[in-house]
Specification:
This protein is an alpha/beta fold. It has a single domain, classed as Rossmann fold (3-Layer(aba) Sandwich). Helix content is 35%, strand content 25%. It has helices at 49-56, 79-88, 105-115, 120-133, 149-161, 179-194, 206-210; strands spanning 7-18, 21-33, 38-42, 64-69, 72-73, 90-93, 167-171, 198-202, 214-217. A 5-stranded parallel β-sheet has the order 6-7-8-3-9, sandwiched between helices. Strands 2-1-4-5 form a 4-stranded antiparallel β-sheet, covered by helices on one side. A hairpin with a 2-residue loop joins strand 4 and strand 5 (72-73). Helix 3 packs across helix 4 (120-133), helix 3 (105-115) packs parallel to helix 5 and helix 4 (120-133) packs across helix 5 (149-161). Bound molecules: adenosine-5'-triphosphate (ATP). The site of adenosine-5'-triphosphate has 12 residues, from strand 1, strand 2 and helix 1. Adenosine-5'-triphosphate (ATP) binds next to strand 1, strand 2 and helix 1.
Length: 221
């Protein structure tokens, strides 16, 4: 049954066991994200912000609880179903861009589509359109090392958009940038959100989190 939410987390529990140590990260955690919302996640270092994004994005199974995407349980699926969810419904942006240094900006952006079924020509056309959207048309043939930090992050955002995800998950995407570049990248997320992409952003920047629709504060459990 459709709940009406894009993402719904119900009673999520997550612990990490490392030798004798047990780290409780999330305890009966609940979250509802409406389609089109811009949510920010804040909280002290080590509280579980990245873990939460990974759980939402199909990268990390919770110990218990339900993650629904468009009313369907993400982790009910076998791994093949999870791959398709990660590749087609969700786009990830991380603090470090993880662009491949031996490939140009446009080739990096094309990469997620080439793993899928579309032709190289189609992928190149779409990648060029997205690079234009993120303000990077004139850097298509640059290699990552020939781009500034802010530009690298814009290319990483473009790559995350390649498969037209409904949900953009960003883990401190501005954490490595100076103030001017970090606001520029944040503005880009705002623009994408206004165009309909739901955004969940982890940030240490209280000013930026204050500009989102809703701020989720994680606390130690
Ligand atoms: N694979 C793992 N194995 C064991 N412990 C882990 C693992 N991943 C995360 N943790 C622990 O779980 C806790 C939450 O980690 P997480 O990266 O989600 O925090 P965070 O809020 O994103 O931190 P930061 O703001 O420093 O990036 C931390 O104490 C971390 O050491």
């Amino acid at each position: 049954m459709m709940s009406g939410y894009l993402v719904e987390l119900i009673n999520i529990n997550k612990t990490f066991k490392k030798g004798p140590a047990v780290i409780n990260v999330l305890s009966d955690f609940n979250l509802r994200v409406e389609k089109g919302q811009f949510i920010s996640i804040v909280g002290p270092s080590g509280v579980g912000k990245s873990t939460l994004l990974h759980i939402i994005g199909g990268l990390e199974r919770p110990d218990s609880g339900i993650v629904n995407f468009e009313g369907e349980a993400v982790y009910k699926q076998k791994n093949a179903g999870l791959d398709s969810y990660r590749n087609n419904e969700v786009g990830f942006v991380f603090q470090f861009h993880y662009l491949l240094n031996d490939f140009t900006a446009i080739e990096n952006v094309m990469m997620p589509a080439l793993i899928g079924k579309i032709s190289r020509n189609e992928a190149a056309k779409r990648a060029a359109e997205i690079l234009e959207k993120v303000g990077m048309s004139d850097r298509e043939s640059h290699y990552p090392m020939e781009l500034s930090g802010g530009e690298q992050q814009r290319v990483a955002v473009a790559r995350a958009l390649m498969n037209n995800p409904k949900l953009l998950l960003a883990d401190e995407p501005t954490g490595n940038l100076d103030k001017k570049n970090s606001y520029g990248v944040f503005e880009l997320f705002k623009k994408l959100n206004e165009e309909g992409v739901t955004v969940i952003l982890v940030t240490h920047d209280e000013h930026l989190s204050g500009l989102s629709d809703k701020e989720i504060k994680l606390e130690k459990v």
